[in-house]
């Protein structure tokens, strides 16, 4: 039975690299995969999934108004799909998460989604909240804080490196805007310490 998977983490854990490697493994065996990425994430170019280590692949950009179930059903009519991959899954709407669940349940195609769990304020993204609620399997992709502990939180910084406490939930960026921390150091940094300061 096909399943809906959610692999989540904080920034810079290698989610995109894992996605591209998994898709490559299917394709190497002659199986077709379909890749989606949030249209608003154009860091690698519109319709491209790009990892920090230089891997990239063409993908279908999705927008909040898109019906992913119908899009995948149309693509399935053009040839069998072995697996669907979704990068930046935190930007899915709740309805799109249900559409992907229906792809697994009714079209019998595994769906592997990758994304952030929480934003810079420590709050769940709507897409991540829905995936945490209904995905068949949850997988944590780990990265580390400067202290060596598992990083589970992220801070957003301005151009001068100051911690931002307010702003839109969605603001695409990379290492220039976001730093991952363990919960303890995220709490310290958000409450007044300098970014990257060591705490005993």
User: How many beta-strand elements?
Assistant: 11
Percent strand? 15-25%
Mind telling me the C-alpha Rg?
A: 17 Å
Task: Based on the coordinates given, report the CATH architecture of the largest domain.
Answer: 3-Layer(aba) Sandwich
Largest sheet: 6 strands, parallel
Anisotropy-based shape: elongated
Neighbour order of strands in the largest sheet: 5-2-6-7-1-8
The helix-and-strand class reads alpha/beta
| Helix content percent band | 25-40%
CATH superfamily of the largest domain: P-loop containing nucleotide triphosphate hydrolases
Q: What low-confidence regions span 5 or more consecutive residues with pLDDT below 50?
A: none
* Count of alpha/pi helices: 5
- Beginning-to-end CA distance, first to last residue: 48 Å
What is the class of the largest domain in the CATH system? Alpha Beta
Helix-strand string: EHEEEEHEHEHEEEEH
Mean pLDDT across all residues, rounded? 85
* CATH-assigned fold name of the largest domain: Rossmann fold
The count of domains is: 2
User: What assembly state would you assign to the polypeptide chains in this entry?
Assistant: single chain
């Amino acid at each position: 039975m096909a399943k809906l998977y959610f692999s989540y983490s904080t920034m810079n854990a290698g989610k995109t690299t894992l996605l591209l490697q998994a898709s490559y493994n299917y394709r190497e065996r002659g199986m077709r995969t379909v890749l989606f990425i949030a249209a608003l994430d154009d860091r690698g170019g519109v319709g491209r999934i790009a990892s920090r280590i230089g891997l990239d692949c063409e993908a279908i950009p999705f927008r909040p108004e898109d019906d992913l179930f119908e899009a995948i059903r149309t693509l399935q009519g053009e040839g069998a799909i072995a697996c669907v991959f979704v990068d930046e899954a935190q930007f899915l709407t709740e309805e799109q998460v249900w559409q992907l669940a229906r792809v697994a349940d009714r079209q019998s195609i595994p769906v592997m989604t990758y994304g952030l769990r929480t934003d810079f304020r420590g709050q769940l993204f709507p897409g991540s909240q829905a995936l945490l609620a209904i995905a068949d399997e949850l997988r944590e992709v780990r990265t580390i804080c400067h202290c060596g502990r598992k990083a589970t939180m992220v801070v957003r910084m301005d151009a001068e490196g100051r911690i931002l406490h307010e702003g839109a939930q969605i603001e695409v960026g990379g290492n220039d805007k976001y730093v991952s921390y363990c919960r303890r150091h995220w709490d310290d940094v958000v409450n007044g310490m300098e970014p990257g300061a060591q705490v005993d």
